[in-house]
Amino acid sequence: MRRSLPLFFSIAVALMIGFVSGLAVAHSSETVEINRVVAMGWGDGKYGDAFYGALVYLEPQSSGYAVRAKVYIGRDNIGRGTSYIHDCGQLGTVKTHAEAVAQWGAIAWSDAGLRIGHSPDSYFVARDQLENHR
């Protein structure tokens, strides 16, 4: 019995490491925590209704937050590790969540493309650039 105790302990530690590793993979960089979301909006495209999903989110920095955006392409693949994404990059920086929503909280889809933000220097990506993924 005493010989099997170290083996049992080793197996238990290995299982715990595997469980924690699984949690880390489940919360991969593809997902964004809800408390970091500034705005989310779905847009239709030539490949289907609600085919494009724009996500504006925050990344913590030493002096506030970086406001970033990405567009998920193909709603059926989101969260399966195979999502196709158009990375819009960093839109700007803010000090608070409220400032991020005030400046970057609007998402507007049109025939011309996607516009993110309220100000004249808002982010814009043309529809033909988004739809060149196939």
Polypeptide structure, described:
Residues 1-26 form the signal peptide. Keywords: Signal. This protein has helices at 4-26, 97-104, 127-130, and strands spanning 37-45, 48-61, 64-73, 84-94, 107-109, 113-116, 123-126. A hairpin with a 6-residue loop joins strand 6 (113-116) and strand 7. It is an alpha+beta fold. Helix content is 26%, strand content 41%. The chain contains 3 helices and 7 strands. The longest helix has 23 residues, at 4-26. The strands form 2 sheets. A 4-stranded antiparallel sheet has the order 1-2-3-4, covered by helices on one side. The termini are far apart. The radius of gyration is 20 Å and the shape is elongated.
Can you describe this structure in just a few lines?
The protein is an alpha+beta fold.
Q: What does the radius of gyration come to?
A: 20 Å
Number of strands: 7
- Gap between N and C termini: 62 Å
Query: Main beta sheet, described?
Result: 4 strands, antiparallel
Q: Which residues sit in consecutive blocks of at least 5 with pLDDT less than 50?
A: none
Helix content: 25-40%
Tell me, rounded to a whole number, the average pLDDT. Answer: 83
Write the element-wise H/E pattern from the N-terminal end onward: HEEEEHEEEH
Class per helix and strand makeup: alpha+beta
Overall 3D form = elongated
In percent terms, what proportion of residues is strand? Answer: 35-45%
Number of helices: 3
Which strand order does the major sheet show? 1-2-3-4
